[in-house]
Amino acid sequence: MRRFETFAEFWPFYLREHAKPRTRAFHYAGTSLVVILAIAGLVTGNLWLLLAMPLAGYSFAWASHAAIERNRPATFTYPLWSLGADFKMWWRWLTGRLNDDLLAAGVRPDGTAERPHGE
Fold this sequence. Notes:
With 119 residues, the protein is mostly helical. It has six helices and no strands. Helix 1 (7-16) crosses helix 5 (79-94), helix 2 packs antiparallel against helix 4 (53-69) and helix 2 (21-44) packs across helix 5 (79-94). It is globular. The mean pLDDT is 95.
């Protein structure tokens, strides 16, 4: 697998690894739950809610990679960039700007992706 030197290089790869709309939907659910748990934990002072955040986020994400996308999550190779990319993907989806990124990364509306040589 190709090594990425910058987040800007990694971002299109990340999107291609999340080509299927159902995979992204699972990620959106998990990331939304993480945000809700963070807010609830901070408001209530319940640290258990904060401790549940990784389980909530990763369970949705990893399940979607195993069952839908059928690939290895990028988290295992690029943990921090994957976390940042997940929140970027979620935010761009919420604000209606993700489709342009998907098209630029070679992700087609049918959920397939053009893979550059080396991926």
